[in-house]
Amino acid sequence: MKFSFYTLGCKVNQYETQAMQQMLLSHGHTLGEFDEPCDGYIVNSCTVTAVSDKKTRNAIRRAQKLNPNAAVGVCGCYAQSAPEEVRALGVDVMVGTADREAFVLQMEQAAQDKASHAHWEKVEPSGLPRAFEQLPAGGLAARTRALLKIEDGCNSFCTYCIIPYARGRVRSMPLEAAVEETKRLAREGYREIVINGIEISSWGWEWKDGSRLPQLLLAVCEAAPDVRIRLGSLEPRTIDEEFCTMLSGCKNLCPQFHLSLQSGSDTVLKRMNRKYDTARYLESVRLLHEFFPNCAVTTDLIVGFPGETEQEFSDSLSFMQTCSLAAVHVFPYSRRKGTPAASMPEQIERSEKERRAALAGEVAATLHTAFLTQQLGTEHDVLFEQTEKGYFTGHTMNYVKVYCAAKNLRNEIRRVRVTALFEDGVLAELI
């Protein structure tokens, strides 16, 4: 049978999609595109924003129209947080943010016997204790980069965020398992592994034995010294002198650090229930640049949070520039039912949030151009991945996109010299 996937959201969702794809392939099935006739369609949902919810609903309806006789299944955060909305759309199989293996088995059964009109769902309350669900993931054929999920859940409960309610509390992959998965992926030929999770800075916290993220990263880097190790999003307080001292000697750790900011105003950060202020964030940035020369520090920014004044918004723009960030992903605040921020006074109009997002985007573009300009004349090792716009493209260790006029370099790491800015990255020549 043929199955296709529509994946929304973060790298954790991408990881879990790859795991389910591998399960289906191992059972003898094939994978197709979401816009072609298939026996089963799987929507891996996200609920970070209202837009994500809408995209999930649209994907479900599209699959049902593409082949009314196919099985349609939904999993992920939207299914976990709003199962009644997903159920109302008439899906055949539904699961929340756990039990992916059972979900795949049920999808196989539903696709095989659609005529029976059997319905299966399993959405357990996210507040119940959960064990870490280790999935057979990593990557698929023809990929140069693999994903390794080391953690799930979040204990932070920022006032705007629905994810702790959808994903549950922190649970971690054992260090030994992470090391073995890293070695396996290296043997399979992957040249880069992206460490991801819902909140990877919280890895090991539930064990209360002193296990912390730097220990795991050190072990993973040592397990595959010829493979690049790239990190997902980090909580700013993770970055201290001990973190930097322990990891600065890891030559295969990519010097790209995504530190979630969300606001450059201390008063907004407090209303968001973020656990740091701008001074602590700036100290993290300073330490990273001190210990990891020419590193890229990237971030997320939410604009239009309830009660955000023009001065608070202006403070955010100024702070972005103070930090000399390499890239900033800007998001208008999205009101999420069930979160404390949803009931806060002074909700900001959509048009005003979009205006602020546009202004922040302009600052972000200027910062990104400045960072790329700093790379002119420098030399880098690039992991080449695919062709694009007549060039072979790949990324440096600090995640600059490189365009190079060369023949097939897929999955090769080659030394280049940056010569010019180009499109969303830089032009470079092989050395």
Outline the structure in words.
The protein has 431 residues and is of the alpha/beta class. It has three domains: 2-122, Methylthiotransferase, N-terminal domain (Rossmann fold), CATH 3.40.50.12160; 145-374, pyruvate-formate lyase- activating enzyme (Alpha-Beta Horseshoe), CATH 3.80.30; 379-430, Nucleic acid-binding proteins (OB fold (Dihydrolipoamide Acetyltransferase, E2P)). Helix content is 35%, strand content 23%. The protein is built from 13 helices and 18 strands. It has helices at 11-26, 50-66, 77-81, 83-87, 100-112, 163-167, 175-187, 213-223, 241-247, 266-272, 278-291, 310-322, 350-374; strands at 2-7, 30-31, 40-45, 71-76, 93-95, 120-122, 145-152, 171-172, 192-197, 228-231, 256-258, 296-303, 327-332, 379-388, 391-395, 401-404, 413-422, 425-430. The strands form four sheets. It has a six-stranded parallel beta sheet with strand order 2-1-3-4-5-6, sandwiched between helices. Strand 14 (379-388) and strand 15 form a beta hairpin. Helix 7 packs parallel to helix 8 (213-223) and helix 12 (310-322) runs parallel beside helix 13. The longest helix has 25 residues, at 350-374. The chain is globular and about 65 Å long. It starts with a strand and ends with a strand. The mean pLDDT is 95.
